[in-house]
Amino acid sequence: MRLFRLTKIVTVGLRFGLDRMVLDADSSGRLARIWQILFFWRTFPEPRAVRLRKALESLGPIFVKFGQMLSTRRDLLPPDLADELALLQDRVPPFPTAQALDLLEGFYGKPIDEVFRDFERTPVASASVAQVHLARLPDGTEVAVKVLRPGIDRVIEHDLALLEAAAMLLEKIWPEGRRLKPREVVAEFNKYLHDELDLMREAANCSQLRRNFKDSALLIVPEVYWDWCGSRVMVMERMHGVPISQTPALLAQGNDLKALSREGVEIFFTQVFRDGFFHADMHPGNIFVHRDGRYIALDFGIMGTLNEVDKSYLAQNFLAFFQRDYKRVAMAHIEAGWVPAKTRVDEFEAAIRTVCEPIFDKPLKDISFGKTLLRLFQTARRFEMEVQPQLVLLQKTLLNIEGLGRQLDPELDLWTTAKPFLERWMDERMGWRALVHGVKAEAPAWASTLPQLPRLVHNALADAGKQRTLHQQRLDKLAAGQRLQGRMLALIGVMAAALLGLELYRLFG
């Protein structure tokens, strides 16, 4: 079976000229010339990036997903490939409803009509890993039921094994292969896919995001119905809205597109700088707009997390960038430990200035945050920076948000929208508000500790007294030992002198 799959992959690769992409990297050109003679009848009028995208689409959903993941690694791929792979869509035919029913009835242990009041047999959405059916709970609540594809685990393991073999081969035969780290990329894809296969994990992500935006005037996140969820089934509140990509429908619904574009940016920066937990798959298919103007988020399989160091790095870099303080940018990298401490600040600063100065010849509204961050990553790699996975996810999401925002409002000035968030975050972490926040955070611990303080001080002093006593006893014992040793040495000296005197007396009488 694996041999047939491998044969298909090789055939598709040859049909779309993917072999040429590898051979073109040979600086001598000999292999490319020999290959051209062997396959003289082939011509490829389309660019290499288009051919790669079409090849992945021909190979099926797992390879499509691999291409989507690759498109986020702009720190590794040439821009033309990354841009084209970003166009990949998960257009997958649904699997038979009978299989979905078998899986659901096996999980619930009873017929589907005893679990749900209504269950629509025709799926409303289908992707490479799962499909969605609409239903009603026994109390009449409208829900969406997400079901994993039967046998998807086996398909994934099978194709991952082939990808790993291809990655190893690529490293050996392609001069650029080692720099692109194909085996590491496949390992990252492996983790990414297995995370998506656990729908309980996705449900937990959804629940956390909903809690973060409880009572929000900007974003609606569906409720999870845990009693109906499992690792292969997720049941959540059904959402009604218009896809963000359908601009005419949004206008017909009475939405203000300029306000929507600003609110989308506000939601993203709130997730990043307030919560450190953000939706990392915000393509148009996962974002709807409710009739009341609020955004609706769907599909929570891929989420990004940021710690305080990450957030500080981002805030300092964005603010320093737009103030053209490149030394501050360089220092932020070194302080975060993402470039070696031995890095010369002046050299790093000069490299950043060389890359970024041309950007600022444009109006602020035309500057791409995502591309600015990408250029920063590419420059930092020259100084031995290993790009952090969470920042790659963030950069990919930022590009999505920019694209959506400017689709709604071509005049969107992302900097003007984002700057207040960055400045407020910095102020809360470094100004007087940081002190107040710290006091509030520590107050519960102080409340429980303060009543115990006298006893703790007494115990500490008593322990210190005991330690001093023990220390003094050890010193006294050591001094006594030294005195005893001194007396023994004196006695030995007297005896030696006496013996010497006796020996002299015997010799000289």
UniProtKB/TrEMBL annotation:
Identification of the protein by name: Probable protein kinase UbiB
Active site positions: D281 (proton acceptor)
NCBIfam families: PRK04750.1, UbiB
Pathway recorded for this protein: Cofactor biosynthesis; ubiquinone biosynthesis [regulation]
Matches recorded under InterPro entries: ABC1_dom, Kinase-like_dom_sf, UbiB, UbiB_bact, UbiB_kinase
EC number: 2.7.-.-
Membrane topology annotation: Single-pass membrane protein
Superkingdom, taxonomy of origin: Bacteria
Biological process per Gene Ontology, one example term: regulation of ubiquinone biosynthetic process
HAMAP family cross-referenced by the UniProt entry: UbiB
Keyword Transit peptide included in the entry's annotation: no
Any one GO CC term of the record: plasma membrane
General function of this protein: Is probably a protein kinase regulator of UbiI activity which is involved in aerobic coenzyme Q (ubiquinone) biosynthesis.
Keyword set, alphabetical order: ATP-binding, Cell inner membrane, Cell membrane, Kinase, Membrane, Nucleotide-binding, Transferase, Transmembrane, Transmembrane helix, Ubiquinone, Ubiquinone biosynthesis
Binding of ATP, residues: V124, A125, S126, A127, S128, V129, A130, Q131, V132, K146
Family: Belongs to the ABC1 family. UbiB subfamily. Belongs to the protein kinase superfamily. ADCK protein kinase family.
